[in-house]
Specification:
Blueprint: H1 15-40, H2 44-61, H3 77-83, E1 87-88, E2 94-95, H4 101-125, H5 127-131, H6 136-148, H7 151-158, H8 162-183, H9 187-190, H10 192-209, H11 217-225, H12 239-242, H13 250-260, H14 263-282, H15 287-295
Antiparallel strand pairs: 1-2
Helix pairs in contact: 1-2, 1-10, 3-13, 4-13, 4-15, 6-14, 8-10
Amino acid sequence: MNPNQGIYDARQLGRPKMLILGVQHMFAMFGATVLVPALTGLSVSATLLFAGLGTLLFHFLTKGMVPAFLGSSFAFIGGYQAIAPMLTDSNGNAVANTEMLPYACFGVTLAGLMYVLLSALFRIFGTKRVMRYFPPIVTGPIIICIGLTLSGSAVTNCSANWWVALVAIALIAIAIVVGCNIWGKGMIKIIPILLGVVGSYAVAAICQINGMQVMDPVKVQALIDAPWIGLPFQFQNTLFGLFSRPDLDHGMLLTAAVTIMPLALATMVEHIGDMCAISSTCERNYLENPGFHRTL
């Protein structure tokens, strides 16, 4: 096996290395996927469940050719916060706006239907003709702007203890990842993200033991008390439960649709950038085969 060539079938690595790479990919996607429900009030468990189901559906539609995971899109955070802003309880903690969340989910559902329409247009007119309107100079800045919308959340998360959060954890994680990428050999060079996560968590645990508040003890206890198996959502808090309400607000349905549906255009541009990046990394033109209409 030539180490300078890409591996397109992970089974060549053997099951132990496949397992390690799978764990690394789980950590790589976990933070971003969980952050969106944490900021919008959606169920974290339900988000992880449907991210997994959506990824399986994605691989089915793309014939298993595109190595990608479908997680949460930051572009929808603004739409959720506009329709269902987080509330504050008596202790000053942010809590989900369960009354309005289903309306926001209605808008996201319509955005999903827009994907179906847009993918049909790609299928009819062809990828090359449509891609002329989405060059890298367009897709790149949009992806950057979507990511920068989370800068405020990063500042808020670090504000409790700037020294520990920024220096002792973030910089150590970055140093481990960069160091493994540059000087690592063999598997060390392949799993820098996993090593960065393990190393930074070890530092966080040491700081916690020594009295530096890093991890919220309330949230840690909630994780310990959570059931292993269960349905991560209740019917009355879903989109289907929304239409069974006697006080259904049709005006709010229209507002949610008008507010959130256009975000599908931003996420489509984001998806174009993702597919171009994956195609470049894998040296495969996934926009042509299996086709952008299938990935979208």
